[in-house]
Amino acid sequence: MSLKTAGIHHITSFAGDPQGNVDFYAGVLGLRLIKKTINFDAPEVYHLYFGNEKGSPGTIITFFPAPGTRKGKIGGGQVGITTYVVPPGSMDYWENRLHSLKVSFTKATRFGESFIQFRDNEGLHLELVEREEGPVNTWTAGGVPRDKAIKGFGGAVLYSADSKHTQGVLENVLGMTPIGEDADAGYIRYQTTGDLGNLIDIPVKDVPWGNGGAGTVHHIAWRAQDDTEHQAWDEWVRQHGFGTSGIVDRQYFNAVYFREQGGILFEIATDPPGFTVDEELNELGHKLMLPEWYEPQRAEIESNLVPIEPRVLQQDESV
């Protein structure tokens, strides 16, 4: 038996300011708030999901935003940079947009590609790259037009405290193909079979350990096509010597977690059932959604959460 993931399903991070989180990802980046729910393991904390119009796998970034969350330090054992892909010809637009919204950015090059790199309001490291691959995002919000909108993930840069071992997991467990090394930049690149979230870069050298907290990634999830394959993934990961969480119901997908030797928490997540399992497509993100086992506590849960809403940024109101 051999399994291959199609690529990134979602990436989940920590944040401190719930409304600031919404303002940045829905406002600045123009993503859709597709699900407003709670951390099932800590119901006093939001779990917010942002993505394309449907919240398709390969587009979903999620956050646990909670006031008072300590500041983290990006480093080994984490996703170091989350890569977003935009349509060809969009870079000038995004440079101008970030500049107008006072988001500082720099430029970088890896594997012959040009990236705009910046940080969100909490310090999470992000980048944009132009690529043809991936469907156009049909969602528009704020000042971001459809033909310039973020399609989803281009991939990610993994910061491993044990790069050789992490490379082995990418290739031998997740079924990724090594496609090149950029000696000047110091990265190895892996490719998956999907058209979004499909290029994973990893520094050749080990990265010193980071610390979890606001502005850092909690885990990265890889795609499983259905529940049958997901069960096989759990067994496959165990066969390679990793302990797993077993299959966990996350309402919108099922999950299996394991931590690889470089310290990064990996998840395998199913593509179905998706985010319309409890809301209609046109209603996504409007209401706090709770799994049935938390519904009896709705009033208490809602009273402990800071109110949030997607809103057009002041700079975009005149556009």
Classify the beta-strand content into a percent band: 25-35%
Distance between the termini: 54 Å
Radius of gyration (Å):
19 Å
Q: Which of globular, elongated, flat, extended, rod-shaped describes the shape?
A: globular
The percent range for helix content is 10-25%
Number of E strands? 16
For the largest beta-sheet, the strand count, sense and barrel status come to: 8 strands, mixed
What would you call the structural class? Answer: alpha+beta
Q: What's the overall average pLDDT, rounded? A: 96
- Adjacency order of strands in the biggest sheet: 2-3-4-1-13-16-15-14
Task: Point out poorly predicted stretches.
Answer: none
* Order of helix and strand elements from N to C terminus: EHEEEEHEEEEHEEEEHEEEH
Number of helices: 5
Description of the molecule:
The protein contains five helices and 16 strands. It is α+β, with helices and mostly antiparallel strands and 319 residues long. The protein has an eight-stranded mixed beta sheet with strand order 2-3-4-1-13-16-15-14. An eight-stranded mixed beta sheet has the order 6-7-8-5-9-12-11-10, covered by helices on one side. The longest helix is centred in the last third of the chain and has 13 residues. The protein is globular and about 45 Å long. 46% of the residues are buried.
In summary, what is this structure?
The protein has 319 residues and is an alpha+beta fold. It is built from 5 helices and 16 strands.
